[in-house]
Amino acid sequence: RWLSPAPRSLPALPDFFMQHTGQVVMYAAAVLASSAHPVIDVHTTRDRKGWSIVAKLKPEDLHHTEQVVAWAKQALLQASEQSSCVYVMGHRRAPFRPRPHGF
After folding, report:
1. Which of 12, 28, 36, 59 could bond 75 through an S-S bridge, CB–CB 3.0 to 4.6 Å?
2. CA distance 92 to 103
3. Domain coordinates of the chain in residue numbers?
4. Is the pLDDT of residue 71 over 50?
């Protein structure tokens, strides 16, 4: 039998992949952190499924959310272009899926 059922939970990603994707994520986080306005805090987290970037804005600056998300996307694309082993799937068409508070 060549088909097997899908696992109930995602396995941890290999360390090599996590290290290289981490470099791309750290670059994007640094770009966001270096923007003087409107980002007030940026941090990254890593779990079994991958990396996350969290950028905080002041409540009065929430109207800049789309701009900050665009900066993050552009920084991720730029960093992945410089990487020898990280590639963003669909980077020429629609590489990011919208989510309620980001992508």
Report:
1. 28
2. 16
3. 15-82
4. yes
